[in-house]
């Protein structure tokens, strides 16, 4: 409550005239002004808009994206999202419509307070009551004049939780979490009542507004507190009810098994069995060389009696050129490689070829991935002759080079971080601020593309004299600074050189973790962080030690792709069966069993070609080109999505319309089923190569023919029941050729064929 | 008397020889683009002679016959006039609103045309700009698409003698206990008396602009306004009636007419669910228009209290409103910068006045009704030729804020209020804490500043309490919210957020 002493009588203003004193005739002050302000010590410290009032806007949700924090505000009143623009917020609260929201003369009549307490109609409802500390704080601030901070106030530099890990052994338990903020002046403040809380999985654990965490059901998740520009998380594990769980340690082959099994044991989940040889061969062949195994490869592998034949097969596949080509295709897709004649956006087919050939060379020669990336980042020169320079023409398909769009896509591809949120406001769920964003954009503000001697050509160079990007809120020039860095890079020269060095150095965990996670996801069907290109504080790895170890292994191997792939494929975890057991049936993220993966569109075509022996051409490419080598080659505008082939559109190959990993669609759809069952892709391939006719002409037995067809498509022999029922179909058929071709067709249309399991 | 006849007949007699007008116009143009005018004034800039070669050299590759990026062709005059898929790219006479120019001069290379090339030379850009300004002529012989009118000569001066109505013995309005002095959010000056009415909390105070004296802290009385905050205060043209409009935010709002002499309530207009933000009384006092967060302008009869028109055109809160002196037009402005001119009698739309890019703070008519001035948070003051609907003159950054060292980007430079004086002169106040005085031809004449070092206290006032640093730090920044002229234009009155009312003599030499 206010003491009466702090209110002063204000009677009425009189006007003071100083006759003949020139232009200015001063008014006098209302009696009492100034004299009473010294009493503010009675109220304790003077309240600050930024330190005391804005956190209440945040906590109460006023500046959330669904309310006044929306880009256009709400019901005529706008605040910056989560308070990224304190100066602007002050102006809008106090001065936009004078006296409307804040009434320092009669503080309790301020609309801000009336709205927040629900005393007048408010779309957002009642947020706190008049007795709350929130109300008292805002009221006191208005009472003392609703001043803006004139001197720099202490900023929050770190936020910490009272606990980083919570283990509940049963549902319906509760524990409380405290949040503290460390300020730039060294003080630490308990901000539990000002933070906002959320849980990543409410079916495992919930967290309420007081910071109390309650266990709900078995599983693992993270709960988060957000305060100022920080999001901090604590891991929560809720154990399943102790039934008859007994951990059976499967034999660990390498560090990957160690970390995954540790995690599973903690969560009381048993891994599935190791898959059989047939499943392994199909899985590893599809994963490494992007097609199903041939009949010969099958026979050779199945007849091999060596105990380490799986490792031998992995090494054989890693040495296959198709492995390098597959990864070249994946990189090309990620870097949005595209080409065509008359392409206005510096994406001419000649440039695309130069880029693709360069990428493939690096993959075939096993260039360390960090060097591969660094060469692109630092590249200059003609896009027609210097392949890596096409990073600056392909990653963003625009007629002009756009530093902001490029910086956003660059960090998404090479760091897995989406900083573009910070273009307009501090990242709501990560550490990245607008300062970070604009400093990062400044690495590219001097990047120029100059038309070359011919229209297809662009010469990429860096104009070091270009000014850096300006901060969107206050217009400050932001010198180039690496993400998370403290000081800007040394000015002068091409800043991409220090950028490339920082990015790809072994010390940069952002880079190595991103690569390791993407490689893991490519093989396992799911990243340790998922989605792979949305790494942020509020999306932590499901198994932190595993990701750290994968990243460390990549660094230790000098960024050798094949070393990490070899380790993953040799692990027991990779070789687990897709068949779940009772304890891991519900697990979808801890790698306790193999994930079913629908084949990528290009892998599916190449597998159909392998199984039927009928090649498939692609527009603009020579006969015999594999789908994984294909990139969209279409003339004209290249800014929009390009699939290049209707099959790719149907089966969700990346259209290269954006850098998002989600451009590659993994979901099965009805049109895919229809395409395979009635489309020409399968239909034309059943009999074209006369594979079935040849089998019949060889006078092989029914069993042998069926086995051939099964191995060709599913890389396994038919089961006894399958064999018997199919034989009866063949016996009933008037023409065995028709029956066999129908069987062949059915196998190619089976779910088992379309999935890697 | 002569002047009265002129008002009635509406005839305008030029007060200066015609050539002086020409010089005036030229000097204003010259002030805008000095180098261009001197270089180009001897010849006509036309599309065929000057612009087509520039476009051909730089633009036709992407915006020509073979390719039309963004649906834009610049291959010929009519195609250029048609614009792109986003609409017209040139606005005659207004280079600032023409996209053709803005893409050529964009600082951001990602936005600038032509892409990935050096910007056009200054002389080429200058030609494009001058061509737009001069009316988009196709060839040297063609008519300008529109000519700008710069007729600034105020022709009608209402005689004002200062014998208007003053408040008599007003009913007592009890004094209030307030936490802080009330911001002078509204202020109105009498058209014919030394009288100003200023907003207080739930009240309006009358102050004699002449009896301003250190020792006599007396007012001429007050009116009770229990509705809440008076957001708009206007005297009627006769000076006998005072309109007060406002209310309590998100609860209620209305306008009230008071008899100045007796303080009697004459009428209560409107029953809104939110405080009125903008309002005005028509010159014949029969109509009152109010608006606010409801986005509609409501016109009420002051006689019957009935709602006559609801004007629906604004897309955001209505923040400024003014009836023309002859009562023919009503102008209203909103929070996103749109101004609409309405027929006061029928409520029909006359013209949209589009130039502001931010909240329109204030609208004021010149005494002859030929010109409307507007100002807003975009820092712009516009003198509108209401006959044509074009800005006759616009002053960007009319109140340029000081730029402290190390501060980049946009500093709020809003113009918060303006008012015409009796002779076509204009006064404005802005976020720079200054009052600016503009001559009838739109030239800045004087700047009156508050001495912010000492806050709202006067160093010459012995009664002012001493201020320590701490006190200064606790004070909210003072903003001048409202300005107005005393009836004869001799003084400027302003009210600020700290509750102060300020007064300056326009011409100290004639001060008695």
Secondary structure layout:
The complex is a heterodimer of chains A (757) and B (512).
Chain A: E1 8-9, E2 24-25, H1 49-60, H2 86-95, H3 111-116, H4 133-143, E3 156-161, E4 165-168, E5 174-176, E6 179-183, E7 188-190, E8 196-199, E9 205-207, E10 212-215, E11 219-227, E12 230-238, H5 255-266, H6 277-289, H7 295-303, H8 309-319, H9 321-334, H10 349-364, H11 369-377, E13 381-382, H12 391-394, H13 403-414, H14 434-441, E14 447-451, E15 458-462, E16 469-470, E17 477-478, H15 496-504, H16 509-524, H17 544-556, H18 561-570, E18 597-598, H19 601-612, H20 646-650, H21 670-678, H22 680-688, H23 691-697, H24 702-714, H25 720-732, H26 736-748, H27 751-754, E19 755-756
Helix pairs in contact in A: 1-4, 5-17, 6-8, 8-18, 9-10, 11-15, 13-14, 16-17, 16-18, 21-22, 22-26, 24-26, 25-26
Chain B: H1 2-9, H2 18-32, H3 34-40, H4 47-58, H5 77-82, H6 99-105, H7 122-133, E1 177-178, E2 187-189, E3 195-200, E4 203-208, E5 222-224, E6 229-235, E7 241-248, E8 252-259, E9 265-272, E10 278-281, E11 287-291, E12 296-301, E13 307-312, E14 318-323, E15 329-334, E16 338-343, E17 349-354, E18 360-365, E19 371-376, E20 381-385, E21 390-395, E22 415-420, E23 426-430, E24 434-438, E25 444-449, H8 469-474, E26 480-485, E27 491-496, E28 501-505
Antiparallel strand pairs in B: 2-3, 3-4, 4-5, 6-7, 7-8, 8-9, 10-11, 11-12, 12-13, 14-15, 15-16, 16-17, 18-19, 19-20, 20-21, 22-23, 23-24, 24-25, 26-27, 27-28
Helix pairs in contact in B: 2-3, 4-7
Shape of chain A: globular
Major sheet description of chain B: 4 strands, antiparallel
Fraction in helix of chain A:
25-40%
Largest pleated sheet of chain A: 4 strands, mixed
Indicate the multimeric state: heterodimer
Q: Which protein chains are joined by the largest interface, and how many residues does each one contribute?
A: A-B, 80 and 86 residues
The shape of chain B, in one word, is elongated
Please state the structural category of chain A: alpha+beta
Please state the second-level CATH architecture of the largest domain in chain B.
7 Propeller
Fraction of residues in H or I helices of chain B: 10-25%
Q: How are the strands of the largest sheet of chain A arranged?
A: 4-12-11-8
How many separate helices of chain A?
27
Total number of β-strand segments of chain B?
28
- How far is the first residue's CA from the last residue's CA of chain A? 69 Å
């Amino acid at each position: 409550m206010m003491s009466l002493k702090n209110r002063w009588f204000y009677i009425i203003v009189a006007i003071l005239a100083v006759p003949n004193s020139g232009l200015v005739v001063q008014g006098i002050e209302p009696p009492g002004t100034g004299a009473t302000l010294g009493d503010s010590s009675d109220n304790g410290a003077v309240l600050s808009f930024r330190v005391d009032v804005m956190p209440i806007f945040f906590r109460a949700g006023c500046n959330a994206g669904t309310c006044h924090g929306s880009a256009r505000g709400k019901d005529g009143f706008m605040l910056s999202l989560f308070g990224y623009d304190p100066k602007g917020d002050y102006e809008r609260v106090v001065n936009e419509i004078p006296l409307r929201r804040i009434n320092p003369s009669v503080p309790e009549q301020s609309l801000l307070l009336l709205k927040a307490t629900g005393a007048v109609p408010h779309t957002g409802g009642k947020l706190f009551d008049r007795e709350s500390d929130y109300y008292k704080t805002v009221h006191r601030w208005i009472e003392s004049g609703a001043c803006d901070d004139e001197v720099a106030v202490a900023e929050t530099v770190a936020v910490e939780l009272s606990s980083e890990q919570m283990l509940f052994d049963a549902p319906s338990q509760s524990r409380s979490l405290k949040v503290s903020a460390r300020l730039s002046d060294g003080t630490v403040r308990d901000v539990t009542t000002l933070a906002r809380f959320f849980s990543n999985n409410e079916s495992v654990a919930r967290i309420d507004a007081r910071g109390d965490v309650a266990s709900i059901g078995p599983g693992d998740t993270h709960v988060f507190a957000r305060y100022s520009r920080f999001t901090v998380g604590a891991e929560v594990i809720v154990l399943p009810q102790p039934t008859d769980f007994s951990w059976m340690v499967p034999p660990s082959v390498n560090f990957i098994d160690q970390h995954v099994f540790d995690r599973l044991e903690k969560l009381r989940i048993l891994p599935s069995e190791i898959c059989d040889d047939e499943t392994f061969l199909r899985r590893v062949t599809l994963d490494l060389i992007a097609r199903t195994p041939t009949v010969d490869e099958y026979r050779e592998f199945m007849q091999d009696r060596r105990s380490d034949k799986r490792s031998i097969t992995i090494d054989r596949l890693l040495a296959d050129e198709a492995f390098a080509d597959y990864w070249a295709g994946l990189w090309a897709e990620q870097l949005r490689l595209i080409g065509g004649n008359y392409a206005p956006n510096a994406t001419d087919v000649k440039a695309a070829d130069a880029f693709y050939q360069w990428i493939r060379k690096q993959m075939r020669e096993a260039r360390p991935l960090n060097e591969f990336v660094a060469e692109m980042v630092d590249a200059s020169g003609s896009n027609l002759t210097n392949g890596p320079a096409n990073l600056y023409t392909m990653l963003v398909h625009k007629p002009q080079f756009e530093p902001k769009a490029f910086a956003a896509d660059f960090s998404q591809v090479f760091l897995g971080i989406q900083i573009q949120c910070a273009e307009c406001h501090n990242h709501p769920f990560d550490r990245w601020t607008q300062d970070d964003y604009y400093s990062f954009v400044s690495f590219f503000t001097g990047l120029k593309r100059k038309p070359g001697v011919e229209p297809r050509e662009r010469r990429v160079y860096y104009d070091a004299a270009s000014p850096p990007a300006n901060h969107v809120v206050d217009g400050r020039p932001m010198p180039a600074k690496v993400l998370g860095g403290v000081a800007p890079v040394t000015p002068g020269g091409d800043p991409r050189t220090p950028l490339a060095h920082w990015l790809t150095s072994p010390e940069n965990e952002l880079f190595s973790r991103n690569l390791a996670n993407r490689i893991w996801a490519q093989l396992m069907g799911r990243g340790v962080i998922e989605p792979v290109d949305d790494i942020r504080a509020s999306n932590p790895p499901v198994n932190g030690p595993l990701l750290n170890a994968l990243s460390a292994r990549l660094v230790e191997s000098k960024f050798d792709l094949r070393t990490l792939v070899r380790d993953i494929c040799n692990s027991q975890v990779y070789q687990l069966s897709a068949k779940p057991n009772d304890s891991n049936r519900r697990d979808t993220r801890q790698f306790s069993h193999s994930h079913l993966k629908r084949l990528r569109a290009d892998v599916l075509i190449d597998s159909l070609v392998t199984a039927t022996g009928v090649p498939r051409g692609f527009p603009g490419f020579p006969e015999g080109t594999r789908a994984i080598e294909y990139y969209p080659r279409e003339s004209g505008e290249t800014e929009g999505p390009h699939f290049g082939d209707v099959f790719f559109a149907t089966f969700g190959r990346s259209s290269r319309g954006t850098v998002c990993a989600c451009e590659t669609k993994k979901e099965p759809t009805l049109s895919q089923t229809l395409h395979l069952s009635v489309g020409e892709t399968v239909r034309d391939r059943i009999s074209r190569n006369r594979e079935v006719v040849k089998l019949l002409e060889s006078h092989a037995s029914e069993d042998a023919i069926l086995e051939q067809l099964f191995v060709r498509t599913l890389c396994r022999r038919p089961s006894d029941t399958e064999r018997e029922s199919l034989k009866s179909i063949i016996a009933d058929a008037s023409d065995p050729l028709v029956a066999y071709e129908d069987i062949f067709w059915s196998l190619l249309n089976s779910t088992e064929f379309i999935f890697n399991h | 008397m002569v002047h009265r006849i002129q008002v009635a007949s509406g005839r305008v007699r030029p007060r200066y020889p015609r050539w002086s007008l020409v010089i005036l116009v030229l000097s204003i143009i010259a002030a805008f683009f000095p180098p261009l005018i001197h270089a180009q004034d001897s010849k006509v800039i036309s599309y065929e002679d000057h612009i087509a070669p520039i476009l051909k050299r730089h633009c036709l590759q992407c915006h020509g016959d073979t390719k039309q990026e963004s649906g834009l062709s610049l291959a010929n005059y009519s195609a250029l006039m048609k614009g792109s898929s986003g609409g017209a790219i040139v606005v005659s006479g207004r280079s600032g609103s023409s996209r053709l120019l803005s893409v050529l001069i964009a600082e951001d290379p990602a936005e600038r045309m032509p892409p990935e090339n050096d910007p056009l030379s200054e002389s080429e850009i200058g030609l494009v700009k001058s061509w737009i300004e001069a009316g988009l002529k196709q060839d040297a012989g063609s008519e300008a698409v529109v000519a700008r009118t710069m007729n600034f000569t105020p022709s009608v001066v209402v005689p004002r003698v200062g014998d208007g109505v003053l408040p008599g013995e007003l009913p007592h309005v009890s004094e209030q206990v307030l936490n802080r002095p009330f911001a002078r959010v509204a202020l109105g000056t009498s058209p014919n008396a030394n009288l100003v009415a200023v907003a207080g909390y739930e009240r309006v105070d009358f102050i004699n602009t002449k009896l301003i004296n250190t020792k006599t802290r007396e007012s001429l009385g007050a009116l009770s306004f229990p509705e809440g905050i008076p957001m708009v205060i206007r005297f009627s043209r006769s000076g006998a009636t005072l309109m007060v409009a406002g209310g309590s935010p998100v609860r209620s709002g209305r306008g009230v007419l008071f008899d100045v002499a007796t303080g009697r309530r004459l009428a209560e207009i409107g029953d809104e669910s939110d405080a009125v933000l903008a309002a005005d009384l028509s010159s014949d006092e029969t109509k009152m228009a109010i608006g606010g967060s409801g986005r509609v302008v409501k016109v009420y009869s002051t006689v019957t209290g009935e709602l006559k028109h609801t004007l629906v055109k604004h897309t955001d809160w209505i923040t400024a409103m003014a009836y023309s002196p002859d009562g023919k037009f009503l102008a209203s402005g909103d929070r996103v910068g749109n101004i609409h001119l309405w027929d006061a009698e029928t409520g029909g739309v006359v013209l949209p006045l589009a130039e502001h890019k931010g909240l329109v703070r204030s609208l004021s008519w010149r005494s002859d009704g030929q010109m409307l001035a507007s100002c807003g948070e975009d820092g712009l003051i516009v003198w509108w030729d209401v006959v044509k609907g074009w800005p006759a003159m616009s002053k960007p950054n009319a109140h340029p804020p000081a730029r402290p060292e190390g501060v980049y980007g946009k500093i709020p430079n809003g113009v918060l209020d303006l008012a015409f004086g009796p002779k076509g002169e204009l006064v404005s106040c802005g976020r720079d804490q200054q009052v600016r005085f503009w001559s009838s031809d739109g030239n800045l004449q004087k700047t009156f500043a508050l001495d912010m070092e000492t806050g709202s206290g006067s160093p010459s006032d012995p009664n002012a309490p001493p201020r320590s640093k701490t006190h200064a730090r606790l004070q909210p920044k003072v903003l001048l919210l409202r300005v107005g002229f005393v009836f004869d234009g001799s003084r400027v009155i302003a009210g600020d957020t700290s509750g102060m009312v300020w007064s300056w003599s326009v011409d100290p030499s004639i001060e008695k």
